[in-house]
């Protein structure tokens, strides 16, 4: 019968052989067709002791796509706490006499990105304002609805591709935000090759016309795009949608959310027979009315990572630093012992193709977050076997619920970073950046999945 120390030696030898053999098997995955000419950075560390489990070009700065969102989400929680809320204050000027408001309604903006957001069913600012007007018995407003700071167009990151900024994922973060700064164009299509028809634009965008050149196609996918800058009065909609559809949604970036909101409010009030006269020269003495608070910061972080909402990420980036996000990121990372020298950051959401990060930076951030941010951060990461974005990556029995990770994708980029629970009970923090791959992207995703499976089984 083998004694205790004999058993220990055998176990150590077996474990050592697994580690010695595994790197070669893992390395071979990155030599497959479609990856031969790619730039690949991988960093895997044990959450318990921070030791390297596997790495491949961990210090190479590569495009992270939406994996970059892990920076504003984690650092916003670190700097502001998970219970922070944005506040939007509403005032009225003048007096209310016999149903007449002899003044304006004034909205003091607070940067809340969630007003009337589809992600928060209770964030119904429009309804709250209309109900409050009705509740005060106001039937006529002499002045107007004034939104402070309106007209101050935010800066577009200079490296954002022109073809992105008019589509929904290119929605800019404003001091006042409404409906995720997104509108929906509903198209109807006929036979393949024929021009589609615009059915509706909701909400309507004042002062902007759409030039529709979208065609019906035999392809069963959305390949329609909106082109035009924030100051454009005409936006071009071009591309294809599936043929023979009575209703097909294409989403665009709402570049002037304040003016859209005002038009919506006036429409809602008119439906209740409340007239906004827009007279000038009314009283300007403000009376505080009510305040609307946003969801908690941890809830905004949840949807930022879970649904990869660029608008929310940019809002959190502004919380970290409204004017120089990159500098503060480097300072904060350096303060917690992470080498930030290889970082280039042009936005907070990952849309810019000029962003570049070493994989090891994100892995080290994940190690720190696991012990310092707790569930507020961990719960925001998509879960294998449940969240759609991880469908291909987690399609294996050993992965499934054992994988929590943020995805990132853009042309030529597939990225993944998060936590993996292994079969032997360990938790690994990992980051995988694949840039400039060729071939079928599903096969690239499957290669990443096979890599994770090997890690989980090691």
From TrEMBL:
Its EC number is 3.4.16.4. It comes from the Bacteria. One of its GO terms (molecular function) is serine-type D-Ala-D-Ala carboxypeptidase activity. Keywords: Carboxypeptidase, Hydrolase, Protease. InterPro entries: Beta-lactam/transpept-like (IPR012338), Peptidase_S13 (IPR000667). Belongs to the peptidase S13 family. This is D-alanyl-D-alanine carboxypeptidase/D-alanyl-D-alanine-endopeptidase. It comes from Butyricimonas hominis.
């Amino acid at each position: 019968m083998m004694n205790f120390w004999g058993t220990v030696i055998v176990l150590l030898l077996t474990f050592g052989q697994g580690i010695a053999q595994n790197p070669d098997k893992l390395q071979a995955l990155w030599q497959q067709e479609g990856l031969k000419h790619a730039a690949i950075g991988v960093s895997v560390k044990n959450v318990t002791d921070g030791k390297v489990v596997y790495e491949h070009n961990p210090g190479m700065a590569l495009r992270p796509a939406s994996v970059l969102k892990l920076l504003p989400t984690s650092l916003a929680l670190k700097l502001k706490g998970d219970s922070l809320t944005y506040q939007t204050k509403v005032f009225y000027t003048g007096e209310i006499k016999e149903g007449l408001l002899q003044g304006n309604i004034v909205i003091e903006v607070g940067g809340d990105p969630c007003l009337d957001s589809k992600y928060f069913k209770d964030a119904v600012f429009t309804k709250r304002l209309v109900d409050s007007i009705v509740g005060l018995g106001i039937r006529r407003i002499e002045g107007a609805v004034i939104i402070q700071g309106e007209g101050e167009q935010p800066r577009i990151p200079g490296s954002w591709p022109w073809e992105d900024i008019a589509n929904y994922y290119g929605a800019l973060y404003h001091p006042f935000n409404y409906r995720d700064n997104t509108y929906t164009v509903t198209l109807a299509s006929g036979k393949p090759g024929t021009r589609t028809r615009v059915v509706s634009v909701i909400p309507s965008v004042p002062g902007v016309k759409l030039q529709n050149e979208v065609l019906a196609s035999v392809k069963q996918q959305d390949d329609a795009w909106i082109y035009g800058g924030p100051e454009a009065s005409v936006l071009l909609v071009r591309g294809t949608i599936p043929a023979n559809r009575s209703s097909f949604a294409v989403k665009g970036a709402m570049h002037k959310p304040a003016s859209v909101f005002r038009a919506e409010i006036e429409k809602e009030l008119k439906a209740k027979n409340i007239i906004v006269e827009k007279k000038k020269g009314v009283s300007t003495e403000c009376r505080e009315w009510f305040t609307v608070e946003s969801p908690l910061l941890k809830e905004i972080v949840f949807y930022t990572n879970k649904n990869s909402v660029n608008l929310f990420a940019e809002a959190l980036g502004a919380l970290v630093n409204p004017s120089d996000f990159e500098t503060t990121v480097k300072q904060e990372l350096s303060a917690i012992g992470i080498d930030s020298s290889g970082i280039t950051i042009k936005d907070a959401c990952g849309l810019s193709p000029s962003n570049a990060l070493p994989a090891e930076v994100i892995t080290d951030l994940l190690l720190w977050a696991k012990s310092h941010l707790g569930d507020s951060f961990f719960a925001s990461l998509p879960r294998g076997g449940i969240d759609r974005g991880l469908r291909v990556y987690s399609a294996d029995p050993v992965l499934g619920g054992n994988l929590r990770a943020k995805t990132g994708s853009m042309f030529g980029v597939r990225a993944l970073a998060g936590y993996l629970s292994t079969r032997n009970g360990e938790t690994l923090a990992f980051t995988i950046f694949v840039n400039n791959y060729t071939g079928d992207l599903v096969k690239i995703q499957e290669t990443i999945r096979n890599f994770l499976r090997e890690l989980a089984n090691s």
